[in-house]
Design brief:
Layout (H helix, E strand, L loop, with lengths): L13 H4 L4 E2 L9 E5 L6 E5 L7 E11 L2 E4 L2 E4 L5 E5 L6 E14 L1 E6 L20 H12 L4 H17 L2 E8 L15 H13 L2 E8 L21 H17 E3 L5 E3 L11 E7 L7 H14 L3 E5 L3 H11 L3 H7 L7 E5 L5 H9 L3 E4 L1 H7 L6 H7 L2 E4 L9 H16 L8 H6 L17 H9 L1 H7 L14 E5 L13 H8 L5 E6 L2 E5 L2 E2 L2 H16 L1
Parallel strand pairs: 4-8, 9-10, 10-11, 11-14, 15-16, 16-17, 17-18
Antiparallel strand pairs: 1-2, 2-3, 4-5, 4-6, 6-7, 8-19, 12-13, 19-20, 20-21, 21-22
Helix pairs in contact: 3-4, 3-17, 12-14, 14-16
The chain binds zinc ion (ZN).
Zinc ion binds next to loops.
Length: about 550
Amino acid sequence: MLMPRSLSLLAGGSDVRRGVDLFACPLAAACFFMTVRAWPPGATIKIFLPDNQPTLTAWLPDFIYTGGRFESDLALLSDRAGRITQLTRGYDKLAARVVRLKGRALLPGLVNAHSHAFQRVIRGRTERRSASHDSFWTWREMMYAAATRLAPEDVYDASRMAFLEMAASGITAVGEFHYLHHAPGGARYADENELAKQVVRAAADVGIRIALLRVAYARAGWNAPPDARQARFIERDPEAFLKQTETLKNDLARVAPASDGARREFAAGDAEEARGAWVGVAPHSVRAVPLDYLREVCAFAATHALPVHMHVAEQPAEIAACMEEHGRTPVALLAGEGLLNERFTAVHAVHITPEEARSLAAAHAHVCACPTTERNLGDGIVPADLLLAAGVRVSLGTDSHTQIDLLEDARELEYHLRLQKLERAVLAPETDAATNALPAQTSHEPKDETNSLAARLFDCATTNGAAGIGANGGALEPGRTADFFTVALDDLSIAGAAADDLLPAVVFSLARTAVRDVVVGGRPIVEDGQHRTRDEIIERFTNLQRRLWR
Ligand SMILES: [Zn+2]
């Protein structure tokens, strides 16, 4: 519900607003009222804010990570629309409300660029030998066992569980690679985007932003017979796929579910990426999508400037099949067809050559690595050294959700290469080696991290992911969405760190217990480590698991 700006203050005065808990509308929708926690506890009143009152919120932690360094005594100011207006030390005359975050450091929200939320239900159920040689392909059998059974409400409950864990670990936006479209057996739902909307609803109810990357899945493989277990994914007709994608795009652009169950219209001027949910396309893989179909999907994405995500070179068998069908590797095929560009993200890109890394870079394409999943599935190691040296922007995804901790993915990107090459600091930029040849004398001065190994990995978890899924966040700068998280400086995992070593401590050592506040569009979704609907989400998910597996 949108209220006219001319409404006057209905309750309280400007002094009343100071020091109370105010909650802006969810997900950056431009609303002009706030709800105040009142006395006695449980009672609420609504305050309508007139135009001539300051409405900015100042967030004041011990440190803010901005511009490649941790700064102290700095406040981040966010407006009612959920955007950052400035970072300043002179906040007291500007802000209507000051949120002191003592003993905490504030960092940009993490962006999870590759997720299959429903796969949260198979966590812990695939860690045993099921064949003489277990692999990605035997794991997929178990995944199909879950994918063929989930009802729409189950998809909501599983997704909400995954998104809750993301929020609790500092993730504020997700790229959801969504391929469950139809009812079990393949029948169409009355609304063919029923399941996509359940996933979007789950993200909105948890409070994180979502790029719903709608998956095109046309076949089991080249010359492969249809697989009944893929019936929920399959759309053989590219026109039908694109029609449903456009419908979803328009639906999400108009309204999005809000966390209180209401459906709010967005203000006409809101940029799409500042909203809670938007659409991208995801041709599943060269195995699952014929070339003509792929061309049509990419042309549609170009027309609408949508992100395009695709599994690329995850498994050697995929490369072999592509060679057999097209006479080229997947990357060579995509490059040759002119389908790589700055909106394209190749997910995994494990089995690629140096030349292919250079061709991804030349096209300004992104790569999304998912190291915790790739190690779990035995996929192999993403050659991030080749990719970063070539200039490819690498993002990170938690993918199958064996573990949801994007900073673990960030450090694994480096650690896998250390084990492979028997070296340390493999992904450190050249300039990092020059400036850090000797251990720094501890000055506790803010250190420019722009060219450090830790900053490079942190960029993968933030700015690179945001660019890959078309989100506006990823960094703490004026004009960006106020999406961030805080960490407790006295948490066991980072205690003792100061401005000069805090970022490496966060990237290589942070435990999830350190994450205290998570804010999306200026609105807290996790406060002091707790999400307000945590218990209900866990209870419903536990019931789902009981029904599915026992
Ligand atoms: Zn995937």
